[in-house]
Each structure stands twice: as structure tokens, then as C-alpha cells.
Queue: 3 jobs
Job 1
Amino acid sequence: MKALRRTARWAAGLVVALLALLAIEALTAIATVPEDGYRAPSQAPREFGSDGARLRLVVLGDSTGSGRGAPYERGIAVASRGTSRNAGA
């Protein structure tokens, strides 16, 4: 019976900790929303570099990968520029 109580306390503590973490994340998200709200990034292609073979990067999947909810400059498309120097080699 002692082990069952200990497990129940541990589980309750875990639930409380997860709820606290969720509350902190929600408050952080609310505090970091820009004053003018969210604006979708331009869908116009952006070019980086001036030489080498052209490479088309398509970001699929999680919306945060393409910069949704974050400035475009912090998305994968911009962050990965310059990492494909030897892609065609």
C-alpha cells in the first residue's frame, strides 16, 4: 500500500509539473507576440550566393520549419543558406 501511495504522489507531482510548464510556455508565447500581430512571410523566392548550381529548397512538414509563427529570417530556408556548397559535387 505504501508503494501505491508513493506512486500516486509521484504521478500527481508529475502532472503538476507538466501543467506548470504548459502555463510558462503559454505566458511566454503571449508575451512574445509582436505588437502588430502575425504577418505571413513573402512567398517570393529568395536567392543566396552568386555562383554554383541552382538549388531549390522546399520545406515540408512542421509549420515552424518554414518560419510560420516566427520571423522568416529565423526559418529553415534562410538558416540553411550556405550549407549546400558541395550539393552538386
Job 2
Amino acid sequence: MGAFDIAKDAVRIASTAGLSKDVIDLLEKKLSLLTEEIDTLHLKISNFETKVSHLEAENTNLKKQLQHLQPASNFSKETSDILHIFFDFGKELSVDDIVSALSLGISVINFHFDILQENNMIIQTIAESRMMGILNPA
């Protein structure tokens, strides 16, 4: 029986019966049930508010993480192509590897490496006297 039904029942009892001891006891019992149900509902509301608060905090945190993972700016087609090559190969690649894959000049590849590094997408290293890049795990 819901809180509204209990209240309706208590009003019905009070309006149709005399106020004998039995009626008063019955009304007190109904009122007690209604109070218990209200307390239970308040507890549920409090629990839901707590869950909503936690979910909102988690949502905010996830949005921040997602924003961190997204590039700060829109990359050019060549920059995106280089980034895709890193993902496809999944290993450290040299400028020469990218040059052969995309048929772009070394200075052009270096320019796009710099853009990717500035956006924390790759980490540039120097290995065997040549420029290398690897995906940034951050």
C-alpha cells in the first residue's frame, strides 16, 4: 500500500467512523505506516541524490579525460595521415619510414612531427643519428 493510499484510508476512516478508541488506534497505526513509508522514501531519495552526485562527478572527470585525449586543434590531412601510420604500425617509426609511406619530403614530415609532438600525440626521439617518433602513451 502506497503512502497516498494510506493517507486516503486514514481520512476515510476518520470521516466515516466515530472517534472510538479502536478508530484512534487504527488511525495511529495508519499514521505510523505512513511515517515509515515517508522515511523510507526520504532515504531512497537521499541515496539517489548521492548516486546522481557521484555520477555527475564521474561524468565531469570522464569529459576532462576525453578532452585530454582529443587533439587540441584540427590536424591537416598530412598530419592525420602520419598519426594513422603510427597507429597502424604501433611501433617507433623514423622520418624515413613516413617519407616512404606517404611520399612527402623530409622537411614536410619533420614539420608534421613537430605538430604532433606539440599536441602530445607522439614523442620524438633521436636514434642512430635520425629523427624518430613514437606514439605518446599519455
Job 3
Amino acid sequence: MSKKKCPECGFEWDSLGDHEHVSAAPQAQEDRYRAEVADMYYRFGWKWVALAYMTGRVVSQGRQLPSGFLEDLTLARTNLESGCSSVCDITADLRDLENKLFEVLLHVSEGEVHAMLELISKAMSGTLQQKDVDLTPLKVVLADTTIPSVCSRR
């Protein structure tokens, strides 16, 4: 029996069998997809931080938050960190929080609205950092004021 040799990998087999290459493309695609999702969670984590920071500014000025806002903020963080919610659900949760907070900030000042939009822009571009925000004013109304763990996975 003669042997065949694969010109791609050098594998030798007898003429009765066959040799196939398993494509690495599906694994590379999967790795790329996972990296993209991790990057989205990273950016959404920082968007949560921006919203929490602006919430702290509202609270420190003695302003009223919409009913259930802090519970929604906490739930959004939990959904973000658990990895059990879809990117679409997290996007919707954060957008809802942003809209509610935007309405409150309209009654505070134009500068506060601009500050929030700037922070969200930095968060979504991946440039917001811990030194840019201080979540300590939230300690009086929120149990966990640490930076979400998804913000350190980059």
C-alpha cells in the first residue's frame, strides 16, 4: 500500500483512508465574537458608572430621583455583572436609566446635562476611567458603590 502525504501539514496516511483539515475559522470567529461582547460589557459597565456618578451628583444636591430609580440602577448593575442578560436587555436598561436621569438633570442645569452626556460619550468610547468619577456620594442611598467588575476585563 502506498502512502499519501498532505502538502499542507505533512501528515501521511495510507491510500485507503482520507485526511481532512479542520478549519480554525470557526474558533477564530468565536474568539472574535467573545472579545466583541466582552468589549460591549466593558463599555456598558462604564456607562453604568457614568449614570451612577451623575445620580450621586443629583442626590448630593438634594434633588428627588424618580420612583424606583435606585432599584433600577442596582438591577442594571446586577444584570450587567451576572452575564445572564442579553446585550439588548442591558442596552435597554441603561437607556431607560439615562432617559429618567436626563429628565431630572434638565431641572438642575444645562451644565449637568452636558456633563452626563460627556461622561456617557467617554464611557461608550472606552476612555472613562475611575479617576473621572467619584461614587462616594451614592453611599447614602446605594449599598454597592464600587466600580463594576466588567470594567476591569479589558
